[in-house]
Amino acid sequence: MTRRSSSPELLAEAARFRDLMAGWPTGVAVVTGTAAGHPVGCTVTAVASVSADPPLLLVSLAARSRTLEAIEHAGQFGICVLSAAQRRLAQTFATGEPARRFAGVPFRWVLGVPVLHGAMTVAVCAVQEALPVADHVIVMGGPLWQAEDHAAAPFIWFRRGYWDLCPAGPPPGVLDGPKSTLNRIRFTLKHNDFRGRHGHHAHHRKVPPRSRSAPRRGVGPHRTDRSEAPPWPLAQRQQPHLGNLHSGTR
């Protein structure tokens, strides 16, 4: 593969490129490591699966990152995908003083790597390769240990702000069969409870009474009546603007 050098045109578009990537919704994680027996970590959004056989994932860290230095020295790192309840940790590990990021934060040691309590998904990985690319280093690791909390609620980073999510619909097959109506009610109640616990509020709209003489609009073979509309709209709520979340810079 031929390597192209940076051109003035590309350098001039760096700011616009950041705007482009701000439109990519992504989960938020904290990558952790150990330096001289002390926990270190930073917030990242560039985490991806590389291979399932063998299992490999990658995380992108700034070349000047102190966390990267600790990871390369120890040969191991942790990935903690944050839950909605840990939104403050995302900002703490992104901008807080590196030496104090773990102050008051509950965690435990797994295979010599700090793992945050309350994360949705966690993994401890062995470094397989570290590939320098421009001003970042792509670290590939193979999981040595992992755990998931399926009850935890997710949140994402999108357009420089945090967004909460709730299910867009029930799992496949839930509304099929003779118990479909009962399953729909159960899912709707559970969904509303989810929104209530995580700060979402249903938006109600007053509908004027329809005259008996007024025809029913849109009822036919090409439209589902409003009463049959799915009761699980995607609910999102943007958090206050927090500026750029510099992924893996420290």
UniProtKB/TrEMBL annotation:
<dbReference type="Pfam" id="PF01613">
    <property type="entry name" value="Flavin_Reduct"/>
</dbReference>
<feature type="compositionally biased region" description="Basic residues">
    <location>
        <begin position="197"/>
        <end position="215"/>
    </location>
</feature>
<keyword id="KW-0560">Oxidoreductase</keyword>
<dbReference type="InterPro" id="IPR002563">
    <property type="entry name" value="Flavin_Rdtase-like_dom"/>
</dbReference>
<dbReference type="GO" id="GO:0010181">
    <property type="term" value="F:FMN binding"/>
</dbReference>
<feature type="region of interest" description="Disordered">
    <location>
        <begin position="193"/>
        <end position="250"/>
    </location>
</feature>
<protein>
    <recommendedName>
        <fullName>Flavin reductase like domain-containing protein</fullName>
    </recommendedName>
</protein>
<dbReference type="InterPro" id="IPR050268">
    <property type="entry name" value="NADH-dep_flavin_reductase"/>
</dbReference>
<dbReference type="GO" id="GO:0042602">
    <property type="term" value="F:riboflavin reductase (NADPH) activity"/>
</dbReference>
<dbReference type="GO" id="GO:0006208">
    <property type="term" value="P:pyrimidine nucleobase catabolic process"/>
</dbReference>
<dbReference type="InterPro" id="IPR012349">
    <property type="entry name" value="Split_barrel_FMN-bd"/>
</dbReference>
<feature type="domain" description="Flavin reductase like">
    <location>
        <begin position="21"/>
        <end position="164"/>
    </location>
</feature>
<feature type="compositionally biased region" description="Polar residues">
    <location>
        <begin position="236"/>
        <end position="250"/>
    </location>
</feature>
